[in-house]
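This protein record is not my work; I was only asked to verify it. Take the sequence as given and treat only the tokens as open to question. I have pasted the whole thing underneath without changing anything:
***
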Amino acid sequence: MWKKIHAEFCEKIPGTTRTEMALSSRWKVLNKELGKWRNALAKAMDNYRSGQNRTNEMIQAQMWFGATGGGKKSFTHHECWEVVKFCKRFVIIPTGPEVVLNETPLRDSMTSDSPLDSPMSQDSPIEKEPRPIGRKAAKAKKKGNSSNQNSQFLEEIARQNGIRIEMEQKRQEHELALDAQFAREREYLRKKDMDKTDQETMAMDTSHMSPETKQFWKLERRDVMRRRLFRDDGPSNTDWLNDGNH
């Protein structure tokens, strides 16, 4: 709606620098004053006496307008009034009893027919649109969006770190499992080699050997028997042969 109004405004007043927001803000001020002027005219028309002319009516309307407060003592936007006075929002329908200035309140009852107390109709030259967001609200909204983005970013980092830690733990567990498997295989091969060596030691033919060599293999066989007896899988130990007591 405001785009159309702004386009027509620029067409009628070439070179203008007013924006849609500027026109909307200006209309808010005019809308309020036009509504007050409409009320003042309605009161003046209700107070019209036979023999009085329209000049007296305008004077009374100006007095009613100034009595409503708001800082302005008189209404000056008569050209604007000529444009909107036949719109449904501002049209004046003379009704009600005669009133006297300073004796009857400006509003006769709580159910006033003032157009300011009712929503703008379709006949209004400007349709009511949502109020633009203020600077503070915009900053707060931007800050809120930024905080949400930061929170989401931190949550994503935490999630990625959790995934990385979990993968690292699984990798370490897998490596430990492999190390344990390799250790079991090495132990199996060591025992297998030791069994083979023990079997060869026990089956060694020493009949053609010298007495010293025969004594060596005899001690080796004894060491094998000792380990098998006490379930000692350690290596053969023949260092005691170097002991001078044997």
Summary: The radius of gyration is 54 Å. The chain is about 60% helix and 0% strand. Residues 103-127 have pLDDT under 50 and may be disordered.
